[in-house]
Structures
1.
Amino acid sequence: MSGHNVLWVPGTDHAGIATQNVVEKQLASEDPMFRTAMSEVKNKNIKEKQFLSQELYRYKIGREAFIEKVWKWKAEYGGKIIHQLKRLGASCDWSRERFTLDEGLSKAVKEVFVRLYEEGLIYRDNRLINWCPRCHTALSDLEVEHEELEGKLTYIKYQLTSPVAPLSKGGIDGGYITVATTRPETMLGDTAVAVHPDDSRYEDFIGKTVDLPLTKRKIPIISDNTVDPLFGTGAVKVTPAHDFNDEAIAKRKSPPLEFITVIGKDGRMTEAAGSRYAGMDRFECRKIVLKDLKEQDLLEKEEKYKYSIGHCYRCKTSIEPLITLQWYVNVKPLAREAIRVVRERQIRIIPKGWENTYFAWMENIRDWCISRQIWWGHRIPAWYCQELKSEECRRKSGVIVSRVTPQKCPYCSSEKLVQDEDVLDTWFSSALWPFSTLGWPDETDDLKTFYPTTVLVTGFDIIFFWVARMIMMGLKFMGDVPFRDVYIHALVRDIKGQKMSKSKGNVVDPLTMMDRYGTDAFRFTLAAFAAQGRDVKFSEERVEGYRHFVNKLWNAARFIMMNIETNKNQKEIAERGVEVLNLSSRWILSRLATATDNINKALEEYRFNDAASEIYQFIWHEFCDWYIEMAKSDIKNPNLEMSVLRCLLYTLDNSLRLLHPFMPYVTEEIWQKIPHVRRNGEEIQDTIMISEYPKSLSRDHQAEENMSYIIDAVLGIRTIRGELNVPPSAALNVSIKSYSRKAEEILKENMKYLKRLSNSADITIGMEIDKPEGSATCVKSSMEIYVLLKGVLNIEAEVSRLRKAEKEIEDSFFLLNKKLLNEDFIMRAPKEVVEKEKAKYEELLRRKERILESIKKLKEVGGEK
Ligand SMILES: [Zn+2]
Ligand SMILES: [Zn+2]
């Protein structure tokens, strides 16, 4: 509509871990063997059940058959997101739909992997990673959710092999060193005890050894700068194979400390934990270890302790740090560039506040673990030579990374090659989206035309997962940013501001909303509440409210079309364009110009809620409430008829185009039915979708000022009607004291509108008018309005009605006060209930003020002071 060559590519990623989980669960539950097994473990805990579902199924049917099942599942359910987008009226180019596992994108993934490997930016290493024992895969740091939980800090006594001076410094018993830990079961894998080098309490302990309880091992007491003397006793156990800090300590030592893995990939204790514990679940083992320590009198104490525990973002199982061999991307050089382009404003993040979040993460970025031990995804293009027949092959550890499947080892010609079992992190392929979907690595016309793209619209929760990685990969492989603007959209929450979740049962299905209220009303609601930097509190009532707006527009269009269709000069109306004669037409065109400016500006600045509110105000309150109402009499006047009809049509046409991005369906439907007013020989398109988006016209300040007198007068009379409960049918006698000659003139010229719009029988206008006796007053900036009410209103009856209403409010106050002054209620009731009661109180207060104001006015009318 604004004349740009636009491309919006629809598509989805394969959501590796999540999809695999769903399919595993579904397939497992369909399997009779699985069901029998489940009934056997009925009484065991849920974790065990989950392990079972996993292991039984995936490994039973094997890789190929399993992948085939996932593709089948994908064919059945994978279209859901795309279907929702279509229902929402998203104007994507559907012929270009892409999927991260499709052929072209898979080719791009291989290309990127091989190039990064050849440049040394992808490497394989054996180190501690976050492991999910339920999903059986490594996770990147980002995929671990940290949660503060109430746990226990356990103090364990480790006996020194040769005691230091008894009760040495700080009153510490020289026979033991006590360590504090949140994970006692990992002590089976300790390879040292560490203290801070400057901690005088332990000066004599450094260099000694202790007998590690429950094992036959002796371990050293070492010093390390990272030990916090204030944590626990100041002495900590070091378990390099199960803790990231301990891994760092172990690697700093020369020679490095030993790594002993006592927990396996299934979350169960290994043989290395000792025969008593091997095979136990890690949490079960914790209980047994504590029991055993207690029996040997090595458990000093346990105290409550809050600490952060990492969980798998997909299944919420506690993460186990494990030493495994994984693939990594060295992202630091890529991140440096990605920071630079945002600092230099080559990419803008909107709202700007998110830039800090981006910088904070990018500046502390750690290497990205990209291998996942699942089957659904891009299999890593690495093969391992099984024979290592040459010196070169041994030097390369037989690792072959290749774009095509190698037939033999390039180093030793062996034909025994095995491909890596792992797949890549889903985000590895998503990171390439801006160029892989345009045909990269081929040099396509699409890439030339559309890269760099203009804008990425996304959620704040994937700034690191996705946005940052697209920026890094785009810069690396295209030599330019992938997009200019990143618009971080609001999150849709429920009416109370809570995040929607299945477990809370507060999820709103967009399809249901669209079935109930129409897509236009639903879309408009979201746009209207999408204020930058604030979340959307969604309620069905609001959607219902905007459906009235759709109806209002529809009725306005029907009124206009009816009058055009019954006009004998029908053809001429559209062909001759607008020519302005009367004040109201000049005014509405000027207001249209203002609205157009404001909407264009708001859209350019991603203030979608401002744009929505502007178009809503214009169509409902200016076009429908004023212009169309005034036009109703104008079109009966042969001198005005043609120009007013043309202006109606022109304003409607422009309104539809302004509104189209928000409400695509109703605007297209109406636009198809109306003749189009031509301006400057502009071409008329077949669809509103590619018709021109309105640009600003010049404003008519004179018309706006003059019209404001009419609006003030009518609103003033209506206010008095409303406040004093004057029946709508009562035709009123009004006097208006204008403050300027000009206002007087304009009001007099437009008397017929004034009378009709305010339902007044007689209106007297002048600069020297006095307030008539028995009249109510409304003061505006350019005039004072007096409405004669003597004889129209039974003042006594009205006052007593208001007194009664006041009494009712007083009664409600009494009850509310009793509640709100009750400390018990304030303390115990949920916050939102208290807030609601307070809001009720405020509303009653406002109502009471209005009533008292009305009584005062009525008394004035009645002649009382
Ligand atoms: Zn998991
Ligand atoms: Zn080889």
2.
Amino acid sequence: MNDYHIGVDLGGTHLRAALVDTRDGQVVTSLKEPTFAYEGHQAVMERMVSLIRSVLEVSGIPIDRIGGIGVGVPGTPDLKTGDVKFLPNLPGNWRDVPLARFLNQKLALPVFLLNDVRCVALAEWRFGAGRGVQNMACYAIGTGIGGGLVLNGKLHLGIDGTAGELGHQVVELNGLPCGCGGRGCLEMYASGPAIAAMGIKFVLQGHTTRIGELVDFKIEKITAATITAAAREGDPIALTIFQQAGSYLGIAVSSVIVAISPQKVVFGGGVAEAGEILLAPVRKTIQERVHMVPLDKVQLVWAELGNNAGLVGAAYWPVVCSQV
Ligand SMILES: [Zn+2]
């Protein structure tokens, strides 16, 4: 087995590629450039190839020491063919695009695709906050809420790789319609935009809160980070918002805990930077709701790999695939 692999992250704003030592998860070289998704999939794929070539060149590691390429995509790829089936949040026509085949033809390395948040879960389990446990759930809370599950020491993929969509756990009966086609999904109540929207509503309703002051009452500038900043100053409205978002997250996490009885639940993504402000109501909700699993054996922890998690997990994915 080669010790080095390439990880690629196809993001909405940035295309990132890294050469990773997959023995310890260390990033040797990483580069990024704008995705320019509006140019269409062909242009993006060509740019991906040159970015990978640049990473190889900068790292100085010869291509014959590279075991393969893993690509994290913001959607559900066909794990068998390596085709991108549908990327709902990326402009351009990404339906049935043979991405793995294209990269393989250009770079002569085996290529494996995986959902981008499953890459994060895989990296945190193998090299980060979830090291050493058999069962783990991972929540990546940002613009959306992504997730991933590790069961019995293995990334759990389910039918066609669709398992682990923890942002679409239903937390509200007859709740808000969600982009996934369902309603009442966690993502509608605890994602960055959901938290920001609650803040905007309070400001528009004329409540006295730091949230409006922090953005000079330019409400379009209110983000989840604004609510976090206000909450850190002790603003009661901001704390109420996190109380509510954290309670919804706690309901979802309670369901996951009773379903898989994990040793660790890992939280990452921009919203998780709120820290204990978010996690305190999660803990409280779990304590109230979960009685069938010994909670003293379930740790709630922060993701450790930060922005590199997706790249490291993508790079490690070919290793997992070659073990099968
Ligand atoms: Zn949904």
